[in-house]
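At this stage, I wrote out one protein's amino acid sequence and its backbone structure tokens, and that material follows here:
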Amino acid sequence: MSRKGNNTAGILAGLLAGAAAGVILGMLYAPEEGKETRKKIKNKANDLKDQAKNKYGEVSEKVKDQYSNISSTFKETANSVAHTVKDGYDKYKDQIVAKTTDVVKDVEAELNDLKS
């Protein structure tokens, strides 16, 4: 998952850098005053910064949600396995105790027979 996240982040960064370069080049070659061009570049840079922050927020929320889902699923699975193991242990423990009790009774009966 981290490899996919790195690829997505790289692609997003590349797209934003390409868009920014395109906007800046377009403005620099437009026939306007330098002051007006600098103002447009500043506004566009602020817009791109806001877009990047929004995308970061969206991606961050998705990652948090996925982590939460995976964490919950793991906890549920671990609890289920623990209960299954405990139930199996209790079941077989009771069977072993019952068999051991039967064996002890049989041995005691044999010893009583030998004494008589």
User: Anything to note?
Assistant: The mean pLDDT is 83. Helices lie at 2-28, 34-115.
